[in-house]
Write a structure and sequence with these properties.
The chain is of the alpha/beta class. About 40% of the residues lie in helices and about 20% in strands.
Length: about 700
C-alpha cells in the first residue's frame, strides 16, 4: 500500500512500536514528519578506493573483509584499542578504534564492511591507518546501494536509531510514497522560480543524485550551504506557508469591528500641540499620521513603531495617547522594568501636567491600600493613563474602557504577556514600540502580522556620539577623558558585563571595580546598579544620578534601554567584545542626550580577536542602528539578537532568516499575492485551499488560529 503523508510513521516498513515511540519523542509522528527530518550533513561516498590506492590525508571510502580483529591494552592508562585488518583484492588496511571494547561482540572475522574516514599515518608502523572511522556492515546488496556508491545523508541519532538505521527508514518512506501528493506551492510558482515539486524534492533532499565528476565539488558545496534545488524548495515552502498564515492573522484582525469612535477636531489638535516640548521632525509627523489613521479607522490597530536610539518614539506614543484620552478612553503603557516604567511616569507626568489627566504608576512594589486605591480608580475610570510593568496584566487590573495599549521594548515581553494586556479592554488599539533597530528579514518574521512605522530621523540638535576603541594599555587615557568631563560638571557611566568576578571569564566585575574607581576619582561620588539590587535600591541610585549627586554610575546592562540623563556625556564599556552590537548601540544611546556631545569608549583586552576587532570597528564607523543591527543579526543569529525565547520567532526546520533573507522576502511577496487570489475565490476552490492551509499552519508553526 502506498504511503500517504498523514499516515503514522509506524506504517513505514521497519518501524515497529518501539521505534515509533523513539521517533515520536523527536516529534516525528507521521510519514510527512519523517520526510521532513532533514540530514544535517552529507558525505560523498560515490567512489570506492582500493587499499593500495590510499593516500595519507585524504577522506576515503573502502570496502573489504575482516581478516583478523581483537582488543588490546596500551601503556597509557584507561586506553584500550580494538584493531582489525580489513582486506580487499588489492591489499590490506589497519583500522583502529579507541575505547570501544563493545566492538569485539559486534565485529567478527569474515564479515564485510564499508569504512569511511580520513587516512592517517600510524605512529608505530608508519603505514596508512583509519582511526575511529564510520563503519557499516554489508548485509545485502540493496543496503549497500543505500549507504555507499552515492552522496549519503547523515542524520542525528533519534534514541537508539543510528544514522544508518534512519537512512534505511527514510529511503523506504521516499520510495514508498504515493504518487499524487498535494503541493502547497502552486504550479505557477514552482515553474516561475525553478523549484522541484514536493515528491521529487524529498527524494533529492535525502538521496541526491550523483552529479558528473566535474560538477561534484560545486554540488557538494551547495548541499552543505543549503543551496541545492531541493533545499531551496523547502526553504521557500516554509517561509511561504508561514507568511500565508500571517496574512490570515492580519485578515482576521482587520475583520474585527471596533466599537469606539476616535475623532480629530481642532480641540484635540490644540491639546496635542500644547504638550510637545519641541517641533516634531518630519518622520514623527508622518508616523503620527499613520497611527491616527489607524485610530480613526473602523479596524483594530496593531502597529509596530520601530526606530533608532533617540528618534523620539515616546513623543509619538504620547501624541497617540492624547488623541485617545481626548476622546474619553483610557490608555496604558507597559514597560519591561520598574526603572523604565518609573521614568516613563515622570516624563509623561511632566508633559501632561497642564492637561488635567489623571496618571497612575502600577508596578510590583506598589502594594497594600495604595495599590487597591489605584486599582479601584482604574476600574472606575478615575485614572485615564496607567503606566506600569507586568503588573498591568495581572487579574485584578480592570479598565473601565481601555482604548489604546502601548507596549515599550516589546522584545522583552512574551507573546502571552502582550495578549493579556490586549485582553484588558474591548479590542483596544495596540502600539508596540522598540528602540532596537530590526533588520527587515527579522521584522518580516517576528512582526509580519503588524503594520510597521519607522522613525528614521533624529530630532534637531541631537548630536551623534563619538565612539572610540581602546585597549587595556590605554586605560590612563580613558581615565583622563573621564576626569576632564567630570571637571566640567558632566556625568558618566562605566558598564561591565558581570556583577561579580568570574574565574572562568576573567572579566572585571562591577562590584570590585567600583572600589578601584573610587580610588582613581576620590573627589567624586560613585553609584552602583545591577540586576540583583532590590527595586528600591535601583530607583535610589537612578534618582541620585538624575539629581546630580552621583557623578559616575557603575552599572551592568540594566542601563541598556530607556534611561534618560541629559548631563551624562561619557560611557566606558569594559570588555566591549563580550556584548552584541545592538546591545552596544543601545548602551551608547544613553549618553549625549543633552546639549553636550557624548563619547562612548569601547574597552578590550590587549589582543582582541580579528572578528572582535571587525565588529567593534563597525561601532566606531557608524551610528546607523539599522546597519549595525544587520551585522549583529549576521553574527549572532535571530534568537540571540532578540534576546528572549518567547520572542515569537518560529523554529524553522529548513529556513534560516539570516542565510535565506532573500528567499524570505521573495516568499513574503508571493504569499501576499497568493492569499489575495485565495480570498478572492473564497466560495470556490480557494475556500478548500484556505482550510487545508489553516491545518498546515496549526500543525507546523502552532502560532495561528485561522480557518
Amino acid at each position: 500500500m502506498p504511503l500517504r503523508l498523514e499516515m503514522p510513521v509506524q506504517y513505514v516498513k521497519g518501524v515497529g512500536p518501539a521505534r515509533a515511540a523513539m521517533l515520536q519523542k523527536a516529534k516525528i509522528g507521521t510519514v510527512e514528519d519523517l520526510l521532513n527530518y532533514r540530514p544535517f550533513r552529507y558525505e560523498d561516498r560515490s567512489s570506492f578506493r582500493l587499499m593500495n590506492q590510499l593516500r595519507v590525508g585524504e577522506d576515503a571510502l573502502v570496502e573489504g573483509e575482516i581478516a583478523v580483529c581483537g582488543n588490546y591494552s596500551t601503556p597509557m592508562k584507561k586506553v584500550r584499542i580494538f584493531e582489525m585488518v580489513v582486506e580487499d583484492r588489492s591489499g590490506a588496511l589497519a583500522v583502529k578504534f579507541f575505547n570501544q571494547p563493545y566492538l569485539q561482540h559486534v565485529l567478527r572475522n569474515g564479515q564485510r564492511l564499508i569504512l569511511y574516514g580520513q587516512v592517517r599515518r600510524d605512529d608505530y608502523t608508519q603505514r596508512p591507518v583509519l582511526l575511529n572511522p564510520e563503519w557499516e556492515l554489508v548485509v545485502s546488496s540493496s543496503d549497500a546501494a543505500i549507504h555507499s556508491g552515492r552522496i549519503v545523508p547523515i542524520y542525528r541519532r533519534v534514541g537508539k536509531l543510528t544514522t544508518r538505521s534512519l537512512r534505511v527508514i527514510v529511503h523506504r518512506a521516499v520510495t514508498g510514497l504515493q504518487r499524487d501528493i498535494h503541493d502547497p506551492i502552486p504550479d505557477r510558482l514552482l515553474e516561475k522560480h525553478g523549484l522541484p515539486d514536493r515528491r521529487r524534492a524529498w527524494r533529492e533532499l535525502h538521496f541526491p543524485a550523483r552529479p558528473e565528476d566535474r560538477k561534484r565539488e560545486a554540488f557538494l558545496e551547495d548541499l552543505e550551504s543549503s543551496a541545492a534545488p531541493a533545499q531551496r524548495r523547502f526553504v521557500f515552502e516554509e517561509f511561504f506557508l508561514f507568511h500565508l498564515g500571517l496574512q490570515a492573522v492580519r485578515r482576521d484582525r482587520e475583520s474585527l469591528p471596533k466599537t469606539r469612535r476616535i475623532e480629530i477636531n481642532d480641540g484635540v489638535r490644540e491639546v496635542v500641540k500644547g504638550i510637545l516640548p519641541f517641533h516634531p521632525t518630519s518622520a514623527q509627523k508622518r508616523v503620527v499620521g499613520e497611527i491616527v489613521g489607524d485610530l480613526r479607522s473602523g479596524n483594530v490597530m496593531r502597529r509596530l513603531l520601530h526606530g533608532d536610539v533617540g528618534s523620539g518614539k515616546t513623543i509619538v506614543a504620547l501624541q497617540a495617547m492624547v488623541v485617545v484620552l481626548e476622546n474619553g478612553f483610557q490608555t496604558a503603557l507597559m514597560a519591561p522594568t520598574e526603572i523604565l516604567a518609573e521614568q516613563h511616569f515622570q516624563t509623561l507626568s511632566r508633559y501632561l501636567r497642564d492637561t488635567g489627566y489623571s496618571l497612575a504608576l502600577l508596578t510590583g512594589r506598589v502594594r497594600g491600600k495604595r495599590r487597591q486605591g489605584i486599582l479601584e480608580r482604574i476600574r472606575s475610570g478615575g485614572v485615564q493613563l496607567v503606566i506600569g510593568t507586568h503588573a498591568l496584566i495581572e487579574a485584578p487590573v480592570r479598565f473601565r474602557d481601555l482604548g489604546l495599549a502601548v507596549i515599550d521594548e516589546q522584545h522583552r515581553f512574551g507573546v502571552l504577556q502582550r495578549s493579556r494586556l490586549m485582553g484588558k479592554g474591548d479590542q483596544p488599539d495596540v502600539l508596540i514600540m522598540t528602540a532596537t533597530p530590526i533588520p527587515r528579514s527579522l521584522a518580516l518574521t517576528v512582526y509580519g502580522d503588524l503594520d510597521l512605522s519607522v522613525l528614521d530621523e533624529l530630532p534637531p540638535g541631537r548630536q551623534p556620539v563619538e565612539t572610540v576603541l581602546y585597549s587595556e594599555r590605554d586605560r590612563h587615557r580613558v581615565y583622563g577623558l573621564l576626569q576632564r568631563e567630570l571637571a566640567q560638571g558632566r556625568q558618566a557611566y562605566v558598564v561591565y558585563p558581570l556583577i561579580e568576578e568570574s574565574d572562568k571569564l576573567e572579566l572585571r566585575a562591577a562590584e570590585e571595580m567600583t572600589g578601584q574607581l573610587r580610588k582613581v576619582f576620590p573627589g567624586y561620588k560613585l553609584g552602583l546598579i545591577h540586576g540583583r539590587l532590590k527595586s528600591e535600591e535601583k530607583d535610589a541610585q537612578m534618582q541620585a544620578l538624575r539629581d546630580g549627586t552621583i557623578q559616575i554610575l557603575v552599572a551592568t546592562t540594566v542601563v541598556e534601554v530607556g534611561l534618560d540623563v541629559p548631563n551624562a556625556t561619557v560611557m566606558v564599556v569594559e570588555h566591549a567584545d563580550r556584548f552584541g552590537l545592538s546591545q552596544l548601540h543601545q548602551l551608547r544611546g544613553r549618553i549625549g542626550r543633552g546639549r553636550h556631545r557624548g563619547t562612548c569608549v569601547l574597552m578590550t583586552g590587549e589582543a582582541p580577536s580579528e572578528n572582535a576587532f571587525r565588529r567593534l570597528d563597525i561601532m566606531c564607523r557608524t551610528s546607523d542602528g539599522f546597519r549595525i543591527a544587520e551585522e549583529d543579526l549576521e553574527i549572532r543569529g535571530p534568537g540571540e539578537f532578540v534576546g528572549t525565547r518567547q520572542s515569537g520567532i518560529p523554529q524553522f526546520r529548513f529556513g534560516n532568516i539570516v542565510r535565506d533573507r532573500r528567499v524570505l522576502e521573495l516568499a513574503a511577496r508571493e504569499a501576499r499575492d497568493h492569499f489575495s487570489l485565495l480570498t478572492g475565490d473564497a466560495k470556490g476552490a480557494g475556500k478548500d485551499e484556505l482550510a487545508r492551509l489553516a491545518d498546515q499552519w496549526r500543525s507546523r508553526f502552532g502560532l495561528f488560529d485561522v480557518g
